[in-house]
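Sequence of DUF7745 domain-containing protein (Pisum sativum).
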Amino acid sequence: MRTGLKNNIAYSFFDPEIGVLKDMVALITPDHVGMFRESYGGILKTVFRLTDCDRSAIHTLLQFYDPGLRCFVFPDYLLGPLMEDYVSILGIQIRDQIPFHVTRAEPDVLGISRALYLSPEMVKEGLKEKGKLPGFHL
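Predicted 3D structure, token representation.
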């Protein structure tokens, strides 16, 4: 037995026949709709809105669900912060511009310094080339 690894839990999904369910909903009289909503909430709306993509997304998420912790665990993935997270971490402002765009030319030192709110001298001394790839390498 492999120690230290998480045990896998198998989930099986009941895939109801939605057409039959829609026929049953049509049988509910208008005066009983309120009682049904009080008893079961908005479950019918949820069932009718589930598409095949939603079902596959739920199936994918359940593969990462840890019942003991009652949360989703992504052990093999490095989830990095978003651009907005960097704004709060570094305390800089994102200008009103598209942060990523396709360009054929390499950005110059002045453009990089304007985007990072740094002086051109600081950018020039930090910009290094590693493996024919210019950048700020760690």
